[in-house]
Amino acid sequence: MSENMSSLAPPTSTVAPPTLPSTWTPPLSTWETPSFTSAAQFRVGATLVLFVFAACSNLALLASVGRGRRPPSHLRPLMLSLVSADLMMTFVVMPLDAVWNVTVQWHGGDALCKVLCFLKLFAMYASAFILVVISLDRHHVILHPLNSIKAHKRNRQMLLVAWTLSILLAMPQLFIFRAVRMEGADFTQCATHGSFSRRWQETVYNMFHFITLYVVPLLVMSCCYSRILLHIHLQHLREKAGESYLRRSGTDIIPKARMKTLKMTVVIVLSFVVCWTPYYLLGIWYWFQPDMLRVTPEYVHHVLFVFGNLNTCCDPVIYGFYTPSFRADLAACFHQKRRNAARAPPNRGSGARRCPAPHSPSERG
Prior knowledge:
This protein is mainly alpha-helical. 66% of the residues lie in helices and 2% in strands.
C-alpha cells in the first residue's frame, strides 16, 4: 500500500488505521492501485501461522472444557463462550484478512462484503465483552463468596447480554459497508465510501466503536480487579490485626483453587490489553491525523495487527498453564496416538483407539 492509500485499499480491521475506509476517494490522476507489498506478504504469512496455532489450541480447549468428566462449574460456560469468541476470530477474521491482503481488491460481491464486515466486528465485540463477564464473575465470587450458589444463573444472564450487545453494536456494518467500484479503473473494494457525507461523521463512528470495544471493557475490567486487589489487601490487614473471618478452608483468605482461577483470568485480561493497546493507539492517531500514513512505515501497521491477533492464541496457552488436567489430557492423547500408531498394522490403522475424554478444569472457582 502506497502513500496515497485510500478507502479502496484492503482494510485489515474495522478499527484499524490503514484499514478504516475513508469517505474520500482520490482522483485517478493521483491514485495508485494498491499492491501486494512485501510487508503485506509478511502479514499474510504471520497470520497463517497464527491461524494454525489458534485453531488447534482453541479447538483442543473447546473439547477439554466442553466434554470434561467432572460436574460443570459456573466458570465453564464463561470459558466456553471465550473460546467460541476466539474461534470466531480465528476462522473469520484471520482467513478474511489474509485472503483480502492477497487479492488486494474485493471479489466477494456486495452481500458478502456486508456480512463478513459484520462478522469481523461481532467477533471482536464478543471477545471483549466475554472478558468483561469473566471479570464481573471473579469480582462477585471474591467479594461475595456466600452468593456463589446463584453464579450459574447470573453468568447465563450476563453472557446473554454480552452476545446480544455484540450483535447489536456490529449491525451498523451491514448498512455502511458496500462493494465500491472505482470509476475508470478495474478495481472493486469493500468500503464505506459514500456512507458518510463528512469525514468527521466517520471519525465519530470509529471513535464510538473504539470506546465501546476497548475503553469501556478496559475500565470495567480495571475496576473489577482493582476492587478485588483492594479487598484482598484489606483482608490481609484485618488478619494482621487479629480479627477472625469466615473462610471456606483452613486459614486461607481466599481458597487456593479460587485464587488460582483469579490469577488465570487476570493474565487473560492482561494479554488482551497488551496485545491490542498498541494497535488501537495507532488507530486513534490515524483517525485524527490521516497524514500519519506518510510518516509511518507500512510494516508498523501490519506488525501491530498481527500482534493484536496474537491474543487469540494466548487464551488457550494461559488456560493450559493454570490447568494441569488440560495439559495432562493433551499429553495422554499424544502418547496414546503414538502407541496406537506403533502397534497397529498399516492396513488397520483406522482401528486405533480414541484419546481419553478430556477433563474439565480442576479449579472450582
